[in-house]
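In the previous chapter we treated chains in isolation. Here, by contrast, the input contains two separate entities that must be folded as one system, with a combined length of 421 residues.
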Amino acid sequence: MHYDAGSCNGCDIEILAALTPKFDVERFGIVNIGDPKQADVLLVTGAVNHRNKEVLKNLYDQMPAPKMVIAIGTCACTGGVFHNCPNVLGGIDNVIPVDVYVPGCAARPEQIIDAVVLALNKLSGAVKVEEDSE
Amino acid sequence: MNTVQIVIATILALATPVIGGILAGVDRKLTAKMQERIGPPLVQPFYDVLKLWGKNPMISNNLQPILAFSYLGFALLAAGMVTFQQDLLLVLFIMGIADICLTVAAVSTKSPYSYLGGRREFLAMLSYEPVMLLVDIAIFLVTGSFTIKGIYAYGKPLAMVLPLALVALMFVLVIEMKKSPYDVSGSGHAHQELVRGVFTEFSGYTMALIELGHWTKLATTLMIFSLFWAPNPVIGAAISLAMFFIALVIDNIYPRLTWQKMLKTTWSTGFILVLLNLAVLVFGGII
């Protein structure tokens, strides 16, 4: 699942690029889903602020464990160029625990795919059932 | 039925979720190929269900697990009724009850998306069940029996007598598979407006049960379609797989329609096709 915590859309477009025929993330069995209750991995882009931290926390709580969070882009990792803005909290790890960080402005689709596959490998250690399909 | 036939029918009924799962894998692979992608492995749906089963339960209310189990149970019962060559009319009703379990589970929660999906699922049932019923009545008029045994006893392939009914069933299949243009109730692609529709409130093992039930229903529906060439099951299976392929092509071509359009097109086209077919048969002196 993908949540945009106030990003400039640069990273969002790169996430969508990972679904296109060129990168085809579904070959690892990964699909983009809109429902937090059926999601395993939460992708967050953008620097989180006081307004949407509740939403982000809520979405994270709605995902059943075991789950993974990936911070995509410099803004989601640390706050980036917005780190000292009065309304910005900085990286999303101030709100929810993050498992994989993907720096970059914007993060490249290859990096995002690597991060999701890394997260799934990390997850398969947490689940008893064999998880991913490589 | 002798013992061997009973054993074969039981195995076939229990194998329907597996057949449906493989079909779901074929669906994802073919859809990927049509979009010039590589696509997931064929057994990916099974990995997904195992994964869902392994997740921590997060149940919205106590009713949902019971209804999820009943959905799978009724779907398996319908599959068993088909393999044991029972009454086709009753098979349709049992599949309807399975669908009602899913819908009641969806509207029993407080989530507005789940509620919306549940209501649209009711409308989807309203769209395809009368068409399926009419096709069933047409089969009765031709063969003189509502049972599947009667279709086998008829001897001639039904597809030769009722070709337009088979076309009408194409609409039923697309709604049953929840594919575009009729995926109004539980599309996997309508993130903003539906989230996941009728499936929104299911997670973990309840979602796994719903997936298994959905595969069973898909395989059962295709088995019913294969009865249209009852004397030779191989040609029957080929017909139903061809219809499955056409449904995938339609899914990749058409955008999602509104439920009003779904109701109008299925009722008008479905009814007209089946009634036209019957009219030709009556005036042709066949029945």
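Residues 5 and 48 of chain A are 5 Å apart (CA to CA). The interface with chain B takes residues 21, 24, 26-29, 31-35, 37-38, 40, 62, 64-66, 127-133 of chain A (CB under 8 Å). Compare these points with the single-chain example from earlier in the chapter.
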